[in-house]
């Protein structure tokens, strides 16, 4: 099974182009995805992952995603290679987005487009422990 779930911030606005053969839209961008742990200096590092979104998904990303925005991507890893004009072989590993979601809260972005991380993944985003949506009066009310 080849399935990837990522949440990170866009490092740049999506770049749109169209295929030469059948004029299909393709949007390309990269996500900065924080690593779970800090390095020896106490700094959190990030991986920069290239994303490619085709057709309707690409159109959605190009229209609504902007640099710095936090998004969720569900897709698959793909590798490809080609030879350039000088005969040098190039290798690329990227994620092909099959689903794309907003992961910022509406309060953070000021947009009213919906599509939060919680909607997409059915859970609260890591580091976003909201408790204002419910009231717990005592530990007896908790099911655990």
Question: Please, could you describe this protein's structure?
Answer:
Helices cover 13% and strands 44% of the residues. It has 144 residues and is mainly beta. The model is unreliable at 110-117 and 123-138 (pLDDT under 50). It has three helices and six strands. The chain starts with a strand and ends in a 23-residue tail after the last helix. 17% of the residues are buried. The protein has a single domain (4-141), classed as OB fold (Dihydrolipoamide Acetyltransferase, E2P) (Beta Barrel), CATH 2.40.50.140. A five-stranded mixed beta barrel has the order 1-3-4-6-5.
Mean pLDDT: 82
Alpha-carbon distance between the termini?
34 Å
Which spans of ≥5 residues are poorly predicted at pLDDT below 50? 110-117, 123-138
Named CATH topology? OB fold (Dihydrolipoamide Acetyltransferase, E2P)
Give helix and strand order, one letter per element, not per position. Answer: EEEEHEEHH
Percent strand? 35-45%
CATH class category name: Mainly Beta
Features:
144 residues, OB fold (Dihydrolipoamide Acetyltransferase, E2P), 5-stranded mixed beta barrel, 6 strands, globular
Could you give the topology of this structure?
Layout: E1 4-10, E2 15-18, E3 25-38, E4 44-54, H1 55-64, E5 70-83, E6 89-102, H2 106-109, H3 117-121
Parallel strand pairs: 4-6
Antiparallel strand pairs: 1-3, 1-5, 2-3, 3-4, 5-6
Quick overview:
With 144 residues, the chain is mainly β. It has helices at 55-64, 106-109, 117-121; strands spanning 4-10, 15-18, 25-38, 44-54, 70-83, 89-102.
């Amino acid at each position: 099974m080849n399935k990837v779930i990522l949440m990170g911030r866009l490092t740049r606005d999506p770049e749109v182009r169209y295929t030469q053969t059948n004029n299909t839209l393709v949007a390309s961008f990269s996500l900065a995805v924080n690593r779970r742990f800090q390095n020896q200096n106490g700094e959190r590092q990030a991986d920069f992952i290239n994303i490619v979104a085709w057709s309707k998904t690409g159109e959605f990303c190009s229209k609504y995603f902007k640099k710095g925005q936090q998004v969720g991507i569900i897709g698959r890893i793909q590798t490809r290679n080609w030879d350039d004009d000088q005969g040098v072989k190039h290798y690329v590993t990227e994620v092909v987005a099959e689903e794309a979601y907003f992961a910022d809260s509406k309060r953070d972005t000021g947009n009213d487009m919906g599509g939060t991380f919680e909607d997409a993944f059915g859970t609260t985003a890591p580091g976003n422990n909201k408790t204002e949506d419910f009231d717990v009066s005592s530990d007896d009310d908790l099911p655990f």
